[in-house]
Amino acid sequence: MRRSLLFVPSLVLLSVLPAWAQQVSDTAATTQDSAPPAEKLTPREAAELRADILMARKEYLDAARAYDDILKTDPNSAALFNKMGVAYQQLVDLNRAERCYKKAMHADKNLASAVNNVGTVEYEKKHYGKAIGYYQKALELRIDMAPVYANMAYAYVEEKKYPEALSAFGKALAIDPSILDSKGGNGTVIQQRTTTDPGLFYFFVAKSYALAGDAERVAHYLRLSRDDGYKEFVNAQTDPAFAKVIKDPRVQEVLTVAPAYASDDRKSISN
User: Fold this and answer.
1) 263 DSSP assignment
2) 244 with 219: CB under 8 angstroms?
3) Which of 11-15, 69-73, 195-199 is the most confident on average?
4) Rounded mean pLDDT of 208-217?
5) CA distance linking residue 30 with residue 28, whole number of Å
6) For residues 22 and 183, what is the distance between their CA atoms, to the nearest angstrom?
7) How far apart are CA 106 and CA 118, in angstroms?
8) Contact present, 207 and 241 (Cβ < 8 Å)
9) Cα Rg for the chain, rounded, in angstroms?
10) Distance between alpha carbon 3 and the CA centroid of its chain, in Å?
11) CATH 1.25.40.10 residue spans of the chain
């Protein structure tokens, strides 16, 4: 069973539409006249706004072409290369997306979002070690980016480096407690949320929220872990990481009504 939008088919990206496009979408969806008056925009600004609206409407190929047209007269815009990369990544054209992100990095060596985005491409290609390297570089540029920590945590899980993943998730949640529900922002992509063992991973997410003291989310992810067949989710009863939330009625309800699964040979991350 799949009860969460966190996990999607392997070739389909979780929405990575950044905040700049989503804000445009909120207005463009209701009226075509919702953009700022044309006389208040320069031709360059108007062209970029039109491209952003195409992104918000999920017309990614047209958006990529629109950004490319602007780049012909503004060839050193790191932000535009980064946006064009997001458009191509939505089209699952990972090689072209990566080229755009690297051009953005060349234009602005301090653009942490572009460095992160190259990491997400490596993650999609299942190059998890390379992805982690890019996330680390992004955090060297900006240490306060919750999406980057979250991306790193997913990559560590795929590398089966669970303590490192738990640490990265903890840092992400400390910055933004709702990061797992986020779609990214300011050109920063949150990568595809896939894993080879969803039930175990839901337990891992529950554990991360338990350390943060968020009982509501703990109950939610424990339930998903149970329903996806992770047989050791009941270890939450004795795992010290759940101490802050274990007496919460919502958490107890999930644990007490669950089937009494027997342990299997899958690796537990409760210790």
Assistant:
1) P
2) no
3) 69-73
4) 93
5) 5
6) 10
7) 13
8) yes
9) 20
10) 18
11) 19-181
User: Span 19-181: which CATH code?
Assistant: 1.25.40.10
CB 150 within 8 A of CB 169: yes
What is the spatial distance between Cα 70 and Cα 12, in angstroms, rounded to a whole number? 28
Residues forming beta bridges with residue 188, ordered by sequence position: 185
Distance, in Å, from the CA atom of 174 to the CA atom of 171, rounded to the nearest integer, reads 5
Residue with tokens 């958490």: 251
Task: Match 């009625």 to its residue by tokens.
Answer: 249
Residue 128 has pLDDT above 90, yes or no: yes
Q: How many Cβ atoms sit within 10 Å of the Cβ of residue 42?
A: 8
Instruction: Indicate the residue type of 167.
Output: S
**Per-residue pLDDT band at 96 (split at 50, 70, 90):** very high
Mean pLDDT confidence for 106-111: 97
Residues 6+ apart with CB under 8 A from 131: 119, 120, 122, 123, 151, 152, 155, 191
CB 138 within 8 A of CB 115: yes
Mean pLDDT of the chain: 83
Q: What is the DSSP letter of 241?
A: G
Euclidean distance between CA atoms 85 and 25, whole angstroms: 19
Burial class (CB in 10 A: 0-12, 13-18, 19+), 113: buried
**Helical packing angle, 112-124 and 128-141, nearest 10°:** 170
Sign of CA dihedral 15, 20, 23, 25: negative
Average pLDDT of the segment spanning 109-127: 96
Enter the pTM of the model: 0.79
Gap between the Cα atoms of 69 and 73, Å rounded: 8
